[in-house]
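[worker-b] picked up task from shared queue
[worker-b] task type: protein-ligand structure
[worker-b] ligand name resolved to zinc ion; SMILES cross-checked against name lookup, match
[worker-b] sequence length check passed
[worker-b] input payload:
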Amino acid sequence: MGARALPFGVGAGGRWSPVGCRMNSCLLRLRLPPVLFLFLLLLATPGARAAGYETCPEVQPDMLNVHLVAHTHDDVGWLKTVDQYYYGIKNDVQHAGVQYILDSVICALLAEPTRRFVYVEMAFFSRWWHQQTNATQEIVRNLVRQGRLEFANGGWVMNDEAATHYGAIVDQMTLGLRFLEDTFGSDGRPRVAWHIDPFGHSREQASLFAQMGFDGFFFGRLDYQDKLVRKKRQEMEQVWRASASLKPPTADLFTGVLPNNYNPPEGFCWDMLCADRPVVDDPHSPEYNAKELVSNFLQLATAQGQYYRTNHTVMTMGSDFQYENANMWFKNLDKLIQLVNMQVSVSALWDLCCRSLATSFLSLEQQQANGSRVNVLYSTPACYLWELNKANLTWSVKEDDFFPYADGPHMFWTGYFSSRPALKRYERLSYNFLQVCNQLEALVGPAANVGPYGYGDSAPLNEAMAVLQHHDAVTGTSRQHVADDYARQLSVGWGPCEVLLSNALAKLSGSKQSFSFCRDLNVSICPLSQTSAQFQVIVYNPLGRKVDQMVRLPVREGVYLVKDPRNKTVPSRVVELPSSGNPELLFPALVPALGFSIYSVSQVSVQSPKARRLHSRPQKPRSPVLSIKNEHLRATFHPDTGFLRTIEVLDRKLTLPVSQAFFWYNASTGDQQSDQASGAYIFRPSQPKPIPVSHWAQTHVVKTDLVQEVHQNFSAWCSQVVRLYPGQRHLELEWTVGPIPVGDKWGKEVISRFDTPLRTLGFFYTDSNGREILERRRDYRPSWDLNQTEPVAGNYYPVSSRIYITDGKMQLTVLTDRSQGGSSLRDGSLELMVHRRLLKDDNRGVGEALLESGSGVWVRGRHLVLLDTASEAAAGHRLLAEKELLAPQVVLTLGRGRSYHRRAAPRKQFSGLSRELPPSVHLLTLARWGPDALLLRLEHQFAQEEGSSRNLSSPVTLDMRDLFSTFTIVHLQETTLAANQLRARASRLKWTPDTGPISHPTVPRLDPASITLQPMEIRTFVASVQWKEDS
Ligand SMILES: [Zn+2]
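[worker-b] inference finished, payload out:
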């Protein structure tokens, strides 16, 4: 039988399936419950229920209600690859097979109508769904409709919150939620966000969940000190106010901490992967334990209930890859529920008839009275949340985030902010390429999918990118072979996008060419430009504004002539890289908004005249002051060390001494205080002071009219180019680190550190998933009185895109090209961890040292450094970060193409916009959504009070009519952030924060001629469009 074979014995004539579920009885039950269920529902649920909560079970208002949530946590890759987990391959590494879990759970749900189950990861569920028969799909639809199979979260994966960028989070949630909406409609729409495993929680994630329309959010991991305080204060559940800019309740999200991460209470794990004793309720059996189990359960429930404010508490009955034999779990839970609630009934009767007669039997009475207070039931995250909402309480408000996460005094999960930096960069670069692919698919329409180069498609890269957001993927916390598989998935995804780009560029340029995509430009490899004397360079700009960009391509030695789209010569230079001796051609390109410019390059001489070649003589330190400058900036270097010494902003008359160098922390392998080692998750230096990679750098200087560079060589495995192009207001530091030597048996965690005299008083600032900025303070947490036990690792925070320090007058900002960990460990200082290589596992399950196989990995990256007045700084870093994230895409051709379609002359310049977007507006999404539909997201990329003299924080209004040049918007509908609900029809549960009541504004009528964005607002639209013939 093939992949679409009958599942768990459908039609097999009553044969028992391996999990003991007889399909005949499954189908019989399927016919009965809907009517019966509705009938029971009508009996059991007086009063109205909010949409989506109609199917929730009955609770006991005067008792402690224990909501049992049967669930499985299915990592989309970790110790095994995604496919190995799905099919149950390599069970010797970890016993886990998701296809069997879903088979088994559906069967167990059908066996008993009170049972419920929650499922989360759409990467797995959608795959399973497509392998089922129509009959099974219908069974599952019914279970979903009845609320017995509930989806929580519903993203493609349960994404990480530290190493992820908000754009990619929104994309992966959109993909998963769309599958649910298309498959189950509103019945399958998750009400609750569910991040039970990610290692710390970002404020931006909560803000995005709120904007997606979630009613609440539950998670498992938070700092152990924070958790103790919250239990004491009964603050395990709060309202999280997750934006400093968006008007409440837009980014308010009810948030609950689960009592035991996501595991069952001790002694109550009844999976085949657990060793706890099952319920034995036969009093004649020598193994009888029901009474003892019930007594333990009641104690646990009562103790746990004390930390929460309502008469409801939740227990997560499941864990990693559990329920492969769902019958084991459910059979024991059935018994537990029956036994506990039976005790309740007996106790209630006792209360009614006999209590006064029995006061002398104290011990008996106490036991039963205890029992009488507890009601236990199969529930779901949404049904638990619904009861909390009905409690109608006023909740305290949280405004910071849950970073960093520690599960013990020397166990800070701050290493994964930087683990596997090459994979982190590949993920970010793939985000850039996916957006280019999405945009061209939207701008060109069907001709981008089916064209002269074959079938082009953005879907495979979209799915691969979604997988990469998983909390063991981009985090760098998977096994090596799984990390390799993540990279493979990205690489496979790039292919159909390259076909799509070829189709689209042929259509838009009117010329059929052989397009070449140089995937290895970061290491200066591009076969076409390195072997051809003549070629064309297409530069595509995914931003909503024109951009100027210095193009750099590896070429053969010689002199080149570069012409712009209007056939005018533009300045160009061939420079030789001192490190490799490879020549690179540089020329400035100007590219229109959401469009391209085509430059033609031809070699005019094979010999480079001496005068045109670079001075790249090694310069010893102790030579005269080294400096590079352009019209805005000057950077000087220390004559003794070769390190960066000052940055001057000439037109603002700012000068700041800035010393920058590389250091490494010696990774702890455990010590007397704790045996905790530094590993893929955990950062734990053996001593707080880092060791310099070198006390000086050998330098080379490169000065031409198109670039000025200082090449610094710190050691055999650490070098850097400090670079200034004309017109740039930032300094570019391109670092190359690795393979990190570990022959001395010392694990090393390498940082780039900037030291300045700025008086920063312990404060520094980091972004949250690349969007809003959070204030950080050394050795301090806003939520509780911190006992700092790790002075370095305990002050590390995730940096997705930027970190800065300021004295209130001047601000030094560093932008990153990927996620890294960062901190400010001394006033005026700022550091970022660029690479790490470790010899021990940190004992969090991955079971491998972060060695990155073989001789280790060689990593190159960029830090963009901005110096400005504090009031003007945001204008610089917001726009530069946008440009760094969505950099122009370079595509090469030999330029000998035939004309395509009927266009007379090929087009050498194109813009997909009829007018540029204002600087405060970021085009977050432009993608195909259906045969005639596009998904569009517009974002105000400035926060409140960031705009300075340029007023960039003011609300901005756009006219969407005729905004795009290749299609006409026929109809526009606004949706919630993940595009799974119409905004006008979406409603969320209302919560009362203790900061006072908030008004819930009505959604104004949508007018495409006047779309207003408030600071940090994202608006999402589904547009029906008609593509223009001549585009
Ligand atoms: Zn996990």
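[worker-b] attaching auto-annotations
[worker-b] Residues 73, 75, 197, 471 surround zinc ion (CB under 6 Å).
[worker-b] releasing lock
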